[in-house]
Amino acid sequence: MTQNTTTNIIHDRNARGRTRMGWLDSQHTFSFGSFYDPARMGFRSLRVINDDRVVPGAGFPMHSHRDMEIFTYVLEGALEHQDSLGNGAIISPGEAQIMSAGTGITHSEFNPSKTEPVHFLQIWILPDTQRLQPRYEQKAFPLEQRRGNLRLIAAKDGRDGAVTIHQDVDLYTSVLEKGDVLHYHLKPNRYAWLQVAQGIISLNNQELRAGDGVQMYGGELEISTDIGAEILLFDLA
């Protein structure tokens, strides 16, 4: 009999921490800020997955980071980035933006719209090397590359047009429509994290909804949807 088992632990969306203020509604998959759960301190090199919604014309003022790979993925609306390296950019849905904080970087993130909120995921990954030179990278991945397909958007070697990340991580995204089915083989001694960004999926016959996350080890993954969804899949050392 063929062994094809995957060990899954579901992190329920309703167990996330939450920060709510006038301009921000942020839900925390892992311990962050005032939210502390010893069972949610990250997974492998993943340290933060924040599901953020910012009202029009507001955002995070200049603040500093160091020794962290900070990845931003916009789901709806647009996010304006400014940093101490002199970078200024608008991040839109379908774009991958990464910032290596390294020895230290200061940045701000604002919703430039006067009418539309912005919804985005901010992800922190621990780098494999400390005290790196700070850097910024941003690339667009058209919908046709992501629809019904796992598109690599971040990787240690930056292959296939992905942004480069200083960690042994392959990050894929996919926009799924009704009836789509994806298969992914997780190699021995590799781990995975699946984040449901939008919609509803079935992972190996287990229903998951937007905000749910799943940590996995080994085996085959089958991802499908009856209504549509958007996902991020991390293949981790």
Brief synopsis:
This protein is mostly beta strands and 237 residues long. It contains one helix and 19 strands.
Commentary on this structure:
Fe cation binds at residues 63, 65, 107, 109. Residues 152-236 form the Quercetin 2,3-dioxygenase C-terminal cupin domain. Belongs to the pirin family. One of its GO terms (molecular function) is metal ion binding. The protein has 237 residues and is mainly beta. Helices cover 2% and strands 57% of the residues. It is built from one helix and 19 strands. The strands form three sheets. Strands 1, 13, 14, 15, 16, 17, 18 and 19 form an eight-stranded mixed beta sheet that branches. A hairpin with a 2-residue loop joins β16 (181-203) and β17 (206-209). The two termini are 28 Å apart. The model has no long low-confidence stretch (mean pLDDT 96).
Biggest sheet, open or closed, and with what strands and sense? 8 strands, mixed
Give the count of helical stretches.
1
What is the C-alpha radius of gyration, as a whole number of Å? 17 Å
User: Element order, helices and strands?
Assistant: EEEEEEEEEEEEHEEEEEEE
SSE diagram, text form:
Layout: E1 7-11, E2 17-20, E3 24-28, E4 46-54, E5 59-65, E6 69-76, E7 79-83, E8 88-91, E9 95-100, E10 105-110, E11 118-125, E12 135-140, H1 143-146, E13 151-155, E14 163-164, E15 169-176, E16 181-203, E17 206-209, E18 213-224, E19 229-236
Parallel strand pairs: 13-14
Antiparallel strand pairs: 1-18, 2-3, 3-4, 4-11, 5-10, 6-9, 6-11, 7-8, 7-10, 9-12, 13-15, 15-19, 16-17, 16-18, 16-19
